[in-house]
Design brief:
Blueprint: E1 2-6, E2 15-19, H1 28-34, E3 35-39, E4 42-43, E5 50-55, E6 58-63, E7 72-78, E8 81-87, E9 96-98, E10 103-106, E11 111-117, E12 123-128, E13 131-137, E14 141-146, E15 155-161, E16 167-175, E17 184-187, E18 192-197, E19 207-210, E20 213-214, E21 221-226, E22 229-234, E23 243-249, E24 252-261
Parallel strand pairs: 10-16, 17-24
Antiparallel strand pairs: 1-2, 2-6, 3-4, 3-7, 5-6, 7-8, 9-11, 11-14, 12-13, 12-15, 15-16, 18-22, 19-20, 19-23, 21-22, 23-24
Length: 267
Amino acid sequence: TRELFHFQPETKDLMPHCWSEVRIEPSWDFVKQHFLLEMGGEPLENGEKYQIKQRDGLLELSINNAVPEDSGIYSCVCRDQKTKATVKVVAVPASFKVPLKSQEAEEGKSVTLVCELSKSGVRVQWLRNGVALSEEENGCVQELLIRKSLPEDSGTYSCDCVHGDAKTTANVTITCERNELQDMRVTAGEDAVFVCELSHSDVSEGAWWLGSSPLQKNEMNQMTCHGRQHRLVLSMTTTEETGIVTFVVGDERTSARLLVVPKPKGW
């Protein structure tokens, strides 16, 4: 026999061929009786995965939808004659056909991030700001659902192939209404309460001002923070405290006017 082996990387099927000098009539029964096709010493059967065709003196084995696991030594045996060839299937790295898209949504709404890989069966990892969220293996389409979104969900999200360099990245921005300070009028001796709400709950440090003077936290100036809400209580106000109250965080600020009126006569 003469040996001929073709490897066509641009196709999904790899086809080792055997030529026989004996002309054979096209009969599968004849092939089964006189020829043995093996892979790694295991006989191959004609079917969906392996297609064995014979015409004239050519016996052809087609490996459909080749995967790396199909790599190995294939042999064709006819009586005391044997020919073999080595097949190596190199996996094509996955890539993202459809990348992630940046999104903006209002607080409380759901956000779905979607991307599509070039092939299925690829293990991916979802990350937010570089921190792993989940690792999974699905089909070509990958999805990450953020339910009842919060401002803290804002950030940079990425879907990375665990085995490979392919990745896609997008930004998610969750917006919410920011409650500003409100003007307040109180009578001297009463408490003045100022409340504002920020867009993010991870802000614990802020500064309260009265006019051009920063306020210090003490029994008379009570400052608290609960999530996104910041609260200032000025106890037992005096008319001298009339002015502009301001809360500052970074470059952001909100202000309101405090008016402390004298107590009515006879009070």
